[in-house]
Amino acid sequence: MQRFFRSPRFLEIALPIAAVLIAFAIGGVLLAALGANPFEAYWVLLSGAFGSVNGLTATLTKMTPLLLVALGICISFRGGVINIGGEGQIIIGALASTALALWLRDLPGWLLLPLTLLAGAVGGAVWGGIAGVLKARLNVNEILSTVMLNAIAVQLMNFLLRGPMLDPDQIAAGTNIAQSEALPRSVWLLRLAPPTLLHAGVILALVLAVLVYILLWRTTIGYRIRTVGLNPSAARYAGMPVPFYIALSLTLAGAFAGLAGAVEVTGVQHRMLEGLSGGYGFSGIVAALFGKLHPLGAIPASFLFGGLLVGANKMQLTVQVPSALITAINGLVVMFVVASEVYVRRARRRAGREAAEASLVSDTDRASAEVTAGEPQTDSATPGLKL
């Protein structure tokens, strides 16, 4: 029984759950320090996210961009590169999809909608690909490049929404609120449970999660991405173009984040506006890590953290505590999940060494038994007389 509880398989399941519980325990201490009842606050959070139809649909709506970003994070991390640029890629994807939808507004919806989503994915792919090429060709640290590209994307958004893409109605009214013109209704994603905001983008995200799993574990490209991520030197020795797959990993991650921006524009906001990214680029990293960087594991993880985002707003209104506390809890979850992953890897290596030692001992005993069996036996009563 003790060996079971120390096994890597058990720890791989139990430690992330323990990480969440520890993070919430520390969050409870922070809530108490703010003068709030932790049990009441967490009850409001959970009931607000999962306790009603409105809460569940809101959670699924929040889950959609989180899952799309998390899928891209799974690809990039499996490829050995860290994508911190989800926020910027979401913004660029949303800008690209908005610009195309407004430019080609006269096209029929069955053609304009997929083109709009594709424009978002391409915009995000270009933004992620910049960091990928810099990493692959010049060995520029992808953490620094993606963070700086986030800042550039924000400034580009500010310029466009206050200039070329500013809503003409805002100009006519003299209000100049930084937002684009409303998208044509032909590109609005289908609402699955009106009047809630739940839209068909959640189905797209779930289908893509399965496709990313197939890509990473059932195709040659996915195998090479994972090989480059695990051991670039071995991949290079095997003849794989390592720089290409590094750039491809960040490009695909950017494409999924850009698609998240396009889905948010066409499914929820129906126009481009400031703050559209909503922190999904960073929360998606948390969901991917909690899902063990597995596309299918990212589904429940995104649902959980989508619920936390919804419940945080309810908790802020009801208990009068800042919703930023959830951001702090997310950070604690990341820290503890990463720490648990390190512990699991050490446990896996320890189990491997123990298995190797046990195998060595078994082989030694077997060899000794074979040598003993091959020696000539003698009669104990007559020493030296062979039987």
**Broad structural category:** mainly alpha
Poorly predicted tracts of residues: 380-387
Helix content: over 70%
Instruction: Output mean pLDDT.
Output: 87
> Main beta sheet, described?
none
As a whole number of angstroms, the C-alpha radius of gyration is: 27 Å
CATH hierarchy class name? Mainly Alpha
Order of helices and strands: HHHHHHHHHHHHHHH
Question: Cα distance, first to last residue?
Answer: 48 Å
What is the approximate shape?
globular
User: DSSP helix count?
Assistant: 15
Per DSSP, what share of the residues sits in E-state strands of 2 or more residues? under 5%
Q: Using DSSP, what is the number of strands? A: 0
User: Per CATH, what is the topology?
Assistant: ABC transporter involved in vitamin B12 uptake, BtuC
